[in-house]
Each structure stands twice: as structure tokens, then as C-alpha cells.
Amino acid sequence: MGVEPGKSKNKAAGNMAKDMKSVLEEMCKVLFKTAEQMKDRAERRHSKAPDYKQSRKLTGK
Description:
By secondary structure, this protein is mainly α. It has 1 helix and no strands.
């Protein structure tokens, strides 16, 4: 909106920013993969719910 941050002239800061960005991207990939694995394992262990059919309602009397 009219004010843009300037480019850093410090090479170490630029390298650090690149390193942090690559670490962040790698961690996002790993976390996504882990979440998918956890979902798959949970679905494998999940037992199917029994089929219910409609019957008369019990009143308890």
C-alpha cells in the first residue's frame, strides 16, 4: 500500500531468511505426512459400527 520493505544489504541476514524458509517448508511437508499417517492408522483400527434397524420404542414400564 505504498510502503514496501527495503532489501537487506546484510548477506548473513538474507542467508538466514532463506534457511528459515527452507526449514519451514520442510517441516510443513513432514507434519502433513505425519498427519496423513496418523489418519490412516486410526482408520485401520476403527471398527465398523453395527447396522441398526428401526424397531418399537421401549418405554421402560
